[in-house]
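Subject: Sanity check before I submit

Could someone independently write out the C-alpha cells for this chain? I want to compare against mine line by line before I put it in a report. The sequence has 299 residues.
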Amino acid sequence: MSGASYGLLQLLAALVLAPLLPGIINRTKAVMAGRHGQPLLQLWYDVAKLFSKSAVYSRTTTWVFRAGPVVSLAAAACALSVLPWAGGSAALAFDGDLVLFAGVLGLARFLTIAAALDTGSAFEGMGASREAWFSALTEPALLLALCALARVSGSASLSGILGGGAGIPTLVLAAGAVTIVFLAENARIPVDDPTTHLELTMIHEVMVLDHAGIDLAYVHYGAALKLWVLGGLPVAMLVPRTGLWAADLGIGLAAMALLAVLTGIIESTMARLRLSRVPQLLVAATAMAALALSLELVR
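---
Independent answer below. Compare away.
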C-alpha cells in the first residue's frame, strides 16, 4: 500500500473508531468499580440520537455560538489528517504541518471559549476562563516536545518527526509531557472530571451546557476526535513500527485501546487535583519538554 493510501486509511479508521475511546475508558472505570458499565458504542448511540434532534438557540447568542461546535469538529478532523498515529505518513503531510497541527487545535479551543462567552452565562464564562488559563500552560509543553523530536529527525513534518529515532531520555521526557497534555486538553482526571455535574468544578463540560441537539452531537464527536488526536501523539512516539502497514495499523489500534484502558485506570485510582495545583502539573509538563529539547540542543 502506498504512503498516501495508508495515511488515508489511518484517517478513516480514526474517524470511525474515535468514539470507542470514551467507551473503553468508561467501561474500564466501571470494571474497576465492580460494575458492568455502558456499551462500548454508547457515544455512537448518543450522537445518532442527537443528530435526530434540532438545536435550540437563545435570543442572546450570535453566530459565534453556532460556529463553535462546527469549527471545533472541523479543526479536530484537520489535526487528525496530519497525524500519522499508526506510523508511515499522514493523509496530509508537508513541511511545517506541526504548526498547522498546533494551530487548528488552538482554533478549536478559541471557538469553544468564544461560544461559551457568547451565552452570557456566568457558569460558562467561569469554565471558559479556566480553559484559557490551563491551555496557555499546555501549549508550550506540546510545542517544545514536538520541537525536541523535530531536532532529532531534522524534519518539520509530523510524519518525519514521530518515530524518528530519538534517544530514550528525550523520548521519555517528550512522551511524558505530551501525555500530561493529553489528559489536560481532554479534561480528564487529574485536571478535570468529565463525569461531574457540579458547575462550580467543571471546565470543559460547563462550557457546552447550552448546546443541544445536532450541535451537541458535534461537540461530543469532536471531543472524541480530539481524544484520539492527542492520544495518538504518545502512541506514535513510543510504539515501535514494523514497516508493514497491516501490522502497524493493528499495533496502533491496540496501543490506542491500551491508552484508553490506562486512562480509565488513572481516573479510577486518582482524585482530581485542586484547581490551584493544576498549573503546577502543567508547568511540570513544560519543564519536561524543555529538558528534552535541551538534551538535543547540547548533543
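---
OP: Matches mine. For the report I'm noting this point. The mean pLDDT is 90.
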